[in-house]
Structure prediction request, 495 residues.
Amino acid sequence: MALSQGLYLKQLQKLSPQQIQLMKLLQVPTALLEERIKEELEVNTALETGEEEETEEFENDKTENEIEPDDEFDLDGSTDEYDNIDISDYVQDGDDDIADYKMRDENYPEKDDNKTIPHKVETGFNELMLEQLGQLNLDDHKQKVAEQIIGNLDDDGYLRREIAAIVDDMAFRQNIQTSEEEMLELVAQIQEFDPAGVCARNLQECLLIQLKRKDTESPHIQLAITILEKYFDEFTKKHYDKILRGLNIDDEELKSIINQIIKLNPKPGGTIGDNNKGETYVIPDFFIINNAGKLELTLNSRNAPELRISEGYREMLKDYDKGSKKDKRQKEAVLFIKQKIDSAKWFIDAILQRQHTLLSTMEAIMNYQYDFFITGDETELRPMILKDIAEKTGLDISTVSRVANSKFVQTEFGSYRLKFFFSESLQTDSGEEVSTREVKKILSDLIEAENKKNPLSDERLTELLQEKGYNIARRTVAKYREQLNMPVARLRKEL
Prediction:
């Protein structure tokens, strides 16, 4: 049996803890950056906020695209370690502003700390239900059962759990015995609460509850109830021909009845209070301004306070340097202080590196998609993948991905996720590569302009796109249509 020997080379990339932290910082959006800085301020007492007029350079500058790992100090108490303490770099004259920086965006209005932001105070959905429950004058047992039912309502106001499961829950977890009949009786009472449609078990029941509170003497309301009770599947699938034949009515009458139904609220709980998420505000990470055809990019640094090394820590090092007697305890304290200062320096440097990386990446995206930022026309978007921006910036693809994640840019046409600008390419008949977003925009325009009485099928949409020069398959059209949240032709049909 022959033995063979070989030499194998394997390249491994090991990131330092500092580099890992930098990668995490890149992923933090502007809205959460302030919170991340506050966490670091709590952990490292050598770091503090301050307001300096001028931005100062760090004493030992790192390269723009790389942060070196800090020196590590092994506090094992060895004589050499304590005897070789060098704090000259920390106590030089003129270093009062060591490692501080300014993050304020000059193009952003100054923050007025005296201003208070008004907050809308509303009664939550659950609170509203319990308030109305208090008006029923139930005994203690039924009160607890009803509260359990309300507690099982989802954000849309539906009771989607099985009644039997809720009965079992109360028996095993609260030792309260009830029955499905008693619970159904209470469900019916809760369904009388406002807003109309709450506590329904499904969409059909929710709509019927709302209709039955209207003028049931109206012929259209009566027919609407009939449609939901007997022709619900046909209604949801838009099989209008079956409904017309079944009710013996004409198109105009059916259209009027359907208008009554579509005015109903399919999510009665979704409009009540802040329990239902309320408004969501987007804080942009970048601003792009069109200044007479010249695009100007700024980074939103409003949520990032100014940071610097604590003056108290530097004074302690100066006092140690001036002292003649240096015992072991003092030296241990100095090593601790040096570690805290080095950590603070690194964090400040990391924030600056974050700014530089964000700006360089966004600038590359802005230049790549220049036509879009000038016009706001989605058809002007060029095919662009992470690799394209990585090559222009000299950054790693994973770094570009982290920057693009959860970041927004504010333009004169609105706010956009950075991911919006990345898309694959599609080749036209002429051999030109176009963005898939351009194809989706044209597809959306075709569907919006179609005759709703006879909507365009995926096959017909494919033909129209091919006539415009886009080589695209029917299954791809179907995929893009689904991504645009547009239903199939049958479900887009209107009377």
Q: What stands out?
A: The CA atoms of residues 446 and 461 lie 8 Å apart. Residues 52-82, 93-117, 274-279 have pLDDT under 50 and may be disordered. Residues 17-66+85-109+279-420 form one domain.
